[in-house]
Design goal:
Layout: E1 21-22, E2 25-29, H1 52-75, H2 86-102, H3 115-139, H4 147-174, H5 176-179, E3 181-187, H6 189-200, E4 207-213, H7 217-220, E5 228-230, H8 234-240, E6 246-250, H9 256-266, E7 272-276, H10 279-282, E8 293-296, H11 303-337, E9 343-349, E10 355-361, H12 386-394, H13 401-406, E11 411-413, E12 423-424, E13 427-428, H14 429-432, E14 445-447, H15 449-452, H16 462-477, H17 481-497
Parallel strand pairs: 3-4, 3-6, 4-5, 6-7, 11-14
Antiparallel strand pairs: 1-2, 7-8, 9-10, 12-13
Helix pairs in contact: 1-2, 1-4, 2-3, 3-4
GO cellular component, one term: membrane
Keywords: Exopolysaccharide synthesis, Membrane, Transferase, Transmembrane, Transmembrane helix
Main location: membrane
Length: about 500
């Protein structure tokens, strides 16, 4: 069954003047006006910065350390009543960090200094102390821990917390290539110049500006010295090479249609997309920092990415410990059944549209191997060996992909990787669905939501691919550890029942 609404449509974003297209953004054509190589600068090659989550965890740890050290110091000060006990000290530290986080104290831009994040941290400390005091009154604890001791604790913790904040902000500013997110501005030159001027002044957003992309090279000339990187199509290669962390749209709010088109195009890429408001209309005071409006976030980011990484390596390590001996026996059976290597390497498309080689047990005769998937394996395929048929029926041929997970190329659970050039109903996957590339915003997985729903195996029709990709996109948008647990349990049940295997 065909679904025309899923197929590619031309975007009204760029005028179709020439036929040079952006492969990742269907329908986007490069205007003739921007083809001025002499005006285009090569973007700076900056190293990949540390994760904002890691930096936020470091600052949160320093805040907690200030609370803990001040509580320990309080132990050595003679008081009329007892000093706070270790459980109370740890609870106060966790409470302060949580309240500061709710106040935006650990947002990426807040890590580089400024009045607002410091007030959020000190506010969390004060609010935590007040909550403890109220709880002490309700529970009758003032007999053992008097309010005077609590005020002394706050007086000791505040300067230590402030010192940690100022020191970490100075460190991050001194190491911009390791702490700042690499950003590319998209839009008109004058507004981009105004936004860049705020970043080079006293307002720090934690961004390292690589330059400006714009289809109008003449307008880009008025960007106040920002490097002109080329037309909007330049972003495709930069994102695929992993050179961009955030795309900032700098254009007037009146260009609503253009903002919507750019947002729709960039939504299929693993980058954050923000909108810099028109500063002339937005800022009411010169001291007010511009607030970037978030249009799209990369999926499974921040603490979710940390949880996902821990989950991947934990499951892969456990699976390898359980399956090591069976995998060795499978490899021996393959070698005894037919000549050729036990493992089969096949090129697949992974995270950010980058190709990698997936590992599988060989299930076909070596001379009939088809690494480019010119013909998908069907039920009763004569190219499949006797052992290979069993492995495919039980999905045990996928076990070597545990090593792909441990190498960081795959997740344990995620959209299944497809071989480049694979077809559905005789057409390449990329032509069947306009948003097919969006499934590459996360790492591919050993199993996924589409597989447990039964959408696995050959894609003889376009409808099978559409249903599979719809499930993949649903997984990316609604990910949670509980969803992964459900998929893992259903995968084990599906393997036991040998559903949709061939």
């Amino acid at each position: 069954m065909s679904h025309p609404e899923h197929r590619r449509k031309d975007s009204p974003l760029m005028p179709p003047v020439v036929e040079a297209t952006w492969p990742g953004f269907p329908g986007a054509r490069q205007p003739e006006a921007v083809r001025q190589p002499e005006a285009i600068r090569r973007p700076r090659q900056l190293p990949r910065p540390f994760s904002p989550t890691l930096l936020a965890a470091l600052v949160a740890g320093l805040d907690a350390l200030a609370i803990i050290l001040s509580g320990v110091i309080l132990q050595y000060i003679p008081l009329e009543r007892g000093s706070p006990q270790p459980p109370l000290i740890m609870f106060f530290a966790a409470l302060t960090v949580s309240l500061a986080g709710f106040g935006g104290g650990y947002a990426h831009a807040a890590l580089f200094g400024g009045r607002r994040p410091i007030l959020a941290a000190l506010g969390g400390l004060l609010a935590g102390g007040c909550l403890l005091a109220i709880a002490a009154q309700v529970l009758g604890a003032p007999v053992t821990f008097r309010p005077g001791a609590a005020l002394l604790w706050l007086g000791l913790a505040a300067p230590m917390l402030l010192a940690g904040r100022l020191g970490s902000a100075a460190l991050f500013r001194a190491l911009p290539h390791l702490s700042r997110q690499r950003a590319v501005l998209v839009g008109s030159g004058p507004q981009a110049a105004r936004f860049a001027a705020t970043l080079t002044g006293r307002h720090d957003q934690g961004l390292a500006l690589l330059g400006l992309v714009d289809n109008d090279a003449a307008a880009a000339a008025g960007s106040g010295g920002l490097p002109y990187l080329g037309p909007v199509t330049t972003l495709d290669g930069m994102i695929r090479r992993g050179e961009v962390d955030q795309v900032v749209l700098c254009m007037p709010w009146s260009e609503e249609r253009r903002v919507r088109d750019l947002q729709a195009m960039l939504a299929d890429y693993p980058v954050d997309v923000t909108l810099a408001p028109d500063l002339m209309a937005y800022r009411s005071h010169a001291s007010e920092a511009p607030r970037l409006l978030r249009l799209a976030d990369r999926p499974i980011r921040g603490w979710a990415a940390v949880v996902k990484a821990i989950e991947d390596y934990t499951l892969a390590t456990a699976a390898l410990a359980i399956a090591a001996v069976p995998m060795a026996l499978i490899a021996l059976a393959i070698r005894l059944d037919s000549p050729g290597p036990a493992l089969f390497r096949q090129r697949r498309t992974g995270f950010n549209n980058r190709d990698f080689y997936v590992l599988k047990f060989r299930t076909m005769y070596h001379e009939a191997a088809d690494p480019t998937v010119r013909q998908q394996v069907m039920q009763g395929d004569p190219r499949v060996t006797r052992v290979g048929a069993i492995l495919r029926r039980t999905s045990l041929d996928e076990l070597p992909q545990i090593f792909n997970v441990l190498r960081g190329e795959m997740s344990f659970i995620g959209p299944r990787p497809h071989a480049p050039g694979t077809r559905a109903g005789g057409r390449p996957f990329e032509e069947v669905m306009a948003r097919y590339a969006a499934r590459h915003r996360v790492k591919p997985g050993l199993t996924g939501l589409a597989q447990v729903r039964g959408w696995r195996g050959p894609t003889e029709t376009e409808d099978k691919l559409i249903r599979r990709v719809e499930s993949d996109l649903e997984y990316i948008e609604t990910w949670s550890p509980w969803l992964d647990l459900m998929i893992l349990v259903r995968t084990l049940l599906a393997v036991a029942r040998m559903r949709n295997a061939c």
